[in-house]
Specification:
The structure holds 2 protein chains of 2 kinds. Helices cover 54% and strands 20% of the residues of chain A. By secondary structure, chain A is α+β, with helices and mostly antiparallel strands. Chain A has a single domain, classed as Arc Repressor Mutant, subunit A (Orthogonal Bundle), CATH 1.10.10.10. The longest helix of chain A is centred in the last third of the chain and has 21 residues. Chain A starts with 6 loop residues before the first helix and ends in an 11-residue tail after the last helix. In chain B, α4 runs antiparallel to α6. The chains are: A alpha+beta, B mainly alpha. Chains A and B meet through α2, β1, α3 and α5 of A and α1 and β1 of B. β1 of chain A pairs antiparallel with β1 of chain B.
Chain lengths: 106, 160
Amino acid sequence: MRPELDPVIHAPTRLRIVALLAASDEVEFAFVRDTLELSDSALSKQAAALEAAGYVRIRKGHVGKRPRTWFSLTREGRAAYESHVAALQAIVAGSGHSLLPARPAG
Amino acid sequence: MHITPDEAAKALGEVRRVQRTALRAAPPMFPAWYAVAVWGFVLGAQAATEVLTGPATWVAMAVLAIGLAAAVIVFLWQMYRAWPLRPHRSVVDPWAWAGFAAWVAGTTIVQFLATLALRTAEFAHPRTGGTLVTFVLVLLTARAVPRWMATRNVRRAETR
């Protein structure tokens, strides 16, 4: 099946969130916020949209007495991310661009 | 939905950058302090049974056992409750864990050989001396091992 771009995770901020979640089993809210340099409200809004699409699972709990929130990709979310990345790679490969990351000289 | 190859390349570059940053910023897969704590316990146990005698041995062993139990509880709490990011298996390089296992096995071999050498040299407390050598080795290398493991994971994420 030909991979397709996913409109839900195509938006840059959502793609960055999903890319981070794809590299992990579960990530704590503050780690996502700080790594992606987002505000609390921006992250909450995007996470809620991804949860509504069925791509992200949000778990609330406590570490000691402090409330914490963790995010993880659902199976559907991971499949959508992998398909989206495969579609991006196909577009780039089709144009003859290189997929290798640029490395500094020396 | 249509995007240009340049936009696609830029999006892929951003995906790689985010994953690289996250995996480098993530806490180590194995906390260095725990390896030091375990070898600290082994060192204490060797000294308690080789250097100390009588009730002092039992008191020292009880204190060490309580210390080790506390370290295990903190370790499990950190790993399963307080860790902000656990890498997904798709970005975990199996060679990172193989290297970690080799490091653990290597430190055990060093302890055995150091103890043997000290015993041959008729050192008064060879087990304690051999374990002290190993403890210093673990102390010097314990932080580098998880850092190396994280670097391997970053490379794996970049080449997927």
